[in-house]
Design goal:
The longest helix has 18 residues. The protein has a five-stranded mixed beta sheet. Strands 6-10-9 form a three-stranded antiparallel beta sheet. A hairpin with a 2-residue loop joins strand 4 and strand 5. The protein is α+β, with helices and mostly antiparallel strands and 154 residues long.
Protein backbone atom coordinates (compact mmCIF):
# COMPACT_ATOMS: atom_id res chain seq x y z
CA UNK A 1 0.00 0.00 0.00
CA UNK A 2 1.28 3.44 -0.91
CA UNK A 3 0.42 6.20 1.52
CA UNK A 4 0.74 9.75 0.32
CA UNK A 5 1.11 12.34 3.02
CA UNK A 6 0.85 16.02 3.46
CA UNK A 7 1.29 18.39 6.38
CA UNK A 8 -1.52 20.81 6.99
CA UNK A 9 -1.91 23.68 9.37
CA UNK A 10 -4.77 22.89 11.74
CA UNK A 11 -7.28 25.33 13.20
CA UNK A 12 -5.18 25.69 16.35
CA UNK A 13 -1.99 26.36 14.39
CA UNK A 14 -0.62 22.86 15.01
CA UNK A 15 0.88 20.80 12.20
CA UNK A 16 -1.27 17.83 11.27
CA UNK A 17 -0.05 14.84 9.30
CA UNK A 18 -2.85 13.70 6.97
CA UNK A 19 -2.33 10.59 4.84
CA UNK A 20 -4.50 9.19 2.05
CA UNK A 21 -5.41 6.41 4.51
CA UNK A 22 -6.69 9.01 7.02
CA UNK A 23 -8.57 10.79 4.24
CA UNK A 24 -10.27 7.60 3.05
CA UNK A 25 -11.29 6.66 6.58
CA UNK A 26 -12.65 10.16 7.20
CA UNK A 27 -14.64 9.92 3.95
CA UNK A 28 -16.03 6.47 4.72
CA UNK A 29 -17.12 7.49 8.22
CA UNK A 30 -18.62 10.76 6.92
CA UNK A 31 -20.70 8.82 4.36
CA UNK A 32 -21.69 6.23 6.98
CA UNK A 33 -22.83 9.03 9.28
CA UNK A 34 -24.86 10.70 6.50
CA UNK A 35 -26.56 7.42 5.58
CA UNK A 36 -27.49 6.69 9.18
CA UNK A 37 -28.84 10.23 9.63
CA UNK A 38 -31.10 9.54 6.63
CA UNK A 39 -32.39 6.38 8.29
CA UNK A 40 -30.58 4.08 5.87
CA UNK A 41 -29.25 0.83 7.31
CA UNK A 42 -25.54 0.86 6.46
CA UNK A 43 -22.54 -1.18 7.59
CA UNK A 44 -18.85 -0.38 7.20
CA UNK A 45 -16.78 -3.23 5.79
CA UNK A 46 -13.34 -3.87 7.21
CA UNK A 47 -10.13 -4.61 5.37
CA UNK A 48 -7.28 -2.89 3.62
CA UNK A 49 -7.63 -3.75 -0.06
CA UNK A 50 -11.35 -3.78 -0.58
CA UNK A 51 -13.64 -2.66 -3.36
CA UNK A 52 -16.69 -2.36 -1.11
CA UNK A 53 -16.46 0.13 1.76
CA UNK A 54 -20.09 0.22 2.89
CA UNK A 55 -23.02 -2.16 2.53
CA UNK A 56 -26.51 -0.68 2.40
CA UNK A 57 -29.74 -2.61 2.73
CA UNK A 58 -32.75 -0.62 1.60
CA UNK A 59 -36.16 -2.22 1.02
CA UNK A 60 -34.73 -5.68 0.28
CA UNK A 61 -32.11 -4.24 -2.09
CA UNK A 62 -28.41 -4.52 -1.26
CA UNK A 63 -26.16 -1.70 -2.44
CA UNK A 64 -22.39 -1.85 -2.34
CA UNK A 65 -20.67 1.51 -1.94
CA UNK A 66 -17.10 2.35 -2.85
CA UNK A 67 -16.06 5.67 -1.28
CA UNK A 68 -13.32 7.66 -3.03
CA UNK A 69 -12.23 10.50 -0.75
CA UNK A 70 -9.76 13.32 -1.37
CA UNK A 71 -8.48 16.00 0.99
CA UNK A 72 -8.12 18.58 -1.82
CA UNK A 73 -9.63 19.52 -5.17
CA UNK A 74 -7.99 16.94 -7.41
CA UNK A 75 -9.02 14.23 -9.82
CA UNK A 76 -9.76 10.90 -8.15
CA UNK A 77 -7.35 8.05 -9.00
CA UNK A 78 -9.30 5.53 -11.06
CA UNK A 79 -6.93 2.67 -11.78
CA UNK A 80 -8.96 0.42 -9.47
CA UNK A 81 -12.40 1.63 -10.60
CA UNK A 82 -14.39 -0.97 -12.45
CA UNK A 83 -17.24 0.15 -14.67
CA UNK A 84 -19.90 -2.41 -13.99
CA UNK A 85 -23.31 -2.92 -15.48
CA UNK A 86 -24.67 -2.96 -11.94
CA UNK A 87 -26.74 -0.01 -10.71
CA UNK A 88 -26.51 -1.41 -7.17
CA UNK A 89 -22.73 -0.87 -6.99
CA UNK A 90 -22.28 2.83 -6.33
CA UNK A 91 -19.22 5.07 -6.28
CA UNK A 92 -19.23 7.98 -3.87
CA UNK A 93 -16.73 10.64 -4.91
CA UNK A 94 -16.02 12.94 -2.00
CA UNK A 95 -13.67 15.87 -1.51
CA UNK A 96 -12.97 17.86 1.61
CA UNK A 97 -12.11 20.84 -0.68
CA UNK A 98 -8.75 21.47 0.99
CA UNK A 99 -10.34 21.82 4.44
CA UNK A 100 -10.02 18.31 5.85
CA UNK A 101 -8.65 19.64 9.14
CA UNK A 102 -11.81 21.71 9.73
CA UNK A 103 -14.33 19.41 11.44
CA UNK A 104 -17.15 21.87 10.70
CA UNK A 105 -16.62 21.54 6.94
CA UNK A 106 -18.93 19.25 4.99
CA UNK A 107 -17.34 17.68 1.92
CA UNK A 108 -18.63 17.92 -1.63
CA UNK A 109 -20.18 14.58 -2.59
CA UNK A 110 -21.26 12.94 -5.85
CA UNK A 111 -23.13 9.61 -5.72
CA UNK A 112 -22.78 7.82 -9.06
CA UNK A 113 -23.98 4.29 -9.90
CA UNK A 114 -21.15 2.21 -11.38
CA UNK A 115 -22.96 1.89 -14.71
CA UNK A 116 -22.94 5.72 -15.06
CA UNK A 117 -19.31 6.48 -14.11
CA UNK A 118 -17.65 5.86 -17.52
CA UNK A 119 -18.19 9.39 -18.97
CA UNK A 120 -16.20 10.87 -16.07
CA UNK A 121 -13.10 8.69 -16.53
CA UNK A 122 -10.03 10.05 -18.31
CA UNK A 123 -7.35 7.60 -19.39
CA UNK A 124 -3.71 8.58 -19.75
CA UNK A 125 -0.68 6.53 -20.81
CA UNK A 126 0.24 5.56 -17.25
CA UNK A 127 -2.94 6.05 -15.23
CA UNK A 128 -6.66 6.72 -15.20
CA UNK A 129 -8.58 9.32 -13.20
CA UNK A 130 -12.14 10.33 -12.52
CA UNK A 131 -12.06 13.94 -13.67
CA UNK A 132 -13.15 16.47 -11.09
CA UNK A 133 -13.85 19.05 -13.80
CA UNK A 134 -16.08 16.61 -15.73
CA UNK A 135 -18.01 15.74 -12.59
CA UNK A 136 -18.37 19.38 -11.53
CA UNK A 137 -19.43 20.51 -15.03
CA UNK A 138 -21.52 17.53 -16.15
CA UNK A 139 -22.49 15.63 -13.01
CA UNK A 140 -24.76 18.03 -11.13
CA UNK A 141 -27.56 15.44 -11.02
CA UNK A 142 -25.25 13.19 -8.98
CA UNK A 143 -24.21 15.83 -6.44
CA UNK A 144 -25.68 14.95 -3.04
CA UNK A 145 -27.74 12.28 -4.82
CA UNK A 146 -28.74 10.56 -1.57
CA UNK A 147 -32.23 9.90 -2.95
CA UNK A 148 -30.69 7.25 -5.21
CA UNK A 149 -30.22 5.13 -2.09
CA UNK A 150 -33.61 6.01 -0.59
CA UNK A 151 -36.19 4.04 -2.49
CA UNK A 152 -39.73 3.81 -1.19
CA UNK A 153 -41.30 0.38 -0.85
CA UNK A 154 -44.01 -0.06 -3.52
Amino acid sequence: MVIHCCHLEGEMGNKLKITSYNTNLAGEFWVLSALNRLGIEAQLTLGNKKSVDILVIQNSTIYTLDVKALADRYDWPADNIKVLNNPNHVYIFLTFEGKITDPQMNPSVWIIPSDKVQPFIKRYATRSVVSRSLIVNNGSKYQNNWKYLIKEEL
